[in-house]
Amino acid sequence: MGKIKIGILGYGNLGKGVEEGLNRNPDMELLGIFTRRNPQDLKTKSPCYALDDLENFKDKLDVLIMCGGSKSDIPDQGPKMTRFFNTVDSFDKHGKIPEYFETMDQIAKDNKKVAVISTGWDPGLFSLNRLIGEAVLPEGKTYTFWGRGVSQGHSDAVRKVKGVKKAAQYTLPKEEMIKAIKAGQDPAYTGQTAHEREVFVVLAEGFDRDEVRKEIVNMPDYFLGYKTLVHFISDEEFERDHRGMPHGGKVIRQGITSKGHSASYQFELDLASNPEFTASVNIAYARACYRLAKNEEYGAKTVLDIAPGLLSMCSMEELRKRII
Amino acid sequence: MGKIKIGILGYGNLGKGVEEGLNRNPDMELLGIFTRRNPQDLKTKSPCYALDDLENFKDKLDVLIMCGGSKSDIPDQGPKMTRFFNTVDSFDKHGKIPEYFETMDQIAKDNKKVAVISTGWDPGLFSLNRLIGEAVLPEGKTYTFWGRGVSQGHSDAVRKVKGVKKAAQYTLPKEEMIKAIKAGQDPAYTGQTAHEREVFVVLAEGFDRDEVRKEIVNMPDYFLGYKTLVHFISDEEFERDHRGMPHGGKVIRQGITSKGHSASYQFELDLASNPEFTASVNIAYARACYRLAKNEEYGAKTVLDIAPGLLSMCSMEELRKRII
Question: What's the pTM value of the predicted model, to 2 decimals?
């Protein structure tokens, strides 16, 4: 049987993660990385092409994994690419997912393609666990905690503050709240009360720490209302300790199965590399995407629409024997 | 829209759990409990019928949840019932699942029924997580830990020892091994090395503690090779502290996404009532069973075959908005 032929669109952290992850999936083959940059400028071991060359791959790729950003890349590329390819993306603007789904669903159906949208770990595996937790414990409450991990969006925001040379922002879950939930209490959970923020900054020369700190902790949408700790560190320290992209978190469903009988459902991830793990999930869903397309089940799909067995390299027979 | 009409076959702990759990699933309706005992002897709030009456419900039930034991009830009832009903069971003899699947698949397809087999939490949600963990982290290792919780099979075995008046057996995961795994070590995991057993016994009059203890800890298949602690307690203490059926456990997939980048995936349950939670999972899969049958997707299904969205009372539109 032939291998599943994969293309990667976009060669940032996520695209690199997919390239790396494909080494661990022997049933797949990377046909090409497609970039808006000059392909000669990317030092990849894999074949690399300009975006315009993608049209020559229309009949060659089984699945195109779109690795651009959710802010502008995916909303633009998704509808275009799904006309020609089965696609996988990790579109993560939670509020816009229903609208994005409708758009992609129509185009995919019209063109007999499958578009797996919004996969990864959140949205993705966390969504799956929010769903299952709620379905098996209808009387209960669901909590999502993120971290400890680096938030790219928040790190970017800090880097835009005048006087900041380098910055990394860590999101931290409040451990005491997690304990309280598992003890069957119902603390006042909101994104703000459940998390703290920790920022590591390398100060640019000639700037004042207190001024910079004040500007960071009062930044609306990002830090205002959160407990935020700002540390000023040396450039060396930053390069040594804060270049990684760790992340993780947990989904907890705390409920009851009858009066007095509690049940606690928890899903947890602890990742040294956020983009590599997201890539790894995307690869598994690319396999499902390929199989759905083979089976002519066209349209947009989320993790909720996909039978978990389709994610595995192994046959259902083997899985029933070994995993059930 | 009408409610999903459910029947319960067997009124032990699991059957009682389904009856209780249906109170939390307003889209479902319990039509009847079916028992081999005299229906008048069961003190249920729900309508209760003799097993022979089941044939009168052929066109009335949407799904029959089979709540008997895996040793003899389910292997006998499954093939019979699936001729007439869409069924859900929690058949848990792991080694026999492939064969049971084949039998049920053929009968279900021949009779245009859906048979969801081997659901619950293990097999069931734990199987799901073993599968997904492996699919998203192909380079890694999967560990299952059970407990702290009461094992009915082991408790039964202890109760058969001469001199034992009452007994409860708890399975305990070795916490130090869990820590080692998450620290990226690879300890020598087997069922025996990963768990300890703790037994609470009320001694019958005239028997010797040391004799009874020796017989328990040396029992092959159940205790031999395990670290087993036996406590002798009073009847009062037993009634007060050991009448519950708590259980739980975790599935851990420990892997890497690239050299030096670890990723830890963990799913965990902590349940005050094992049978009530198993029942609660069965109810969610009964909903999926009903929908698959409506959709004419006949045959046997495991948790690996079922799109998670089918488990929820909510529409996919709502789930995309609220949960993804």
Answer: 0.96
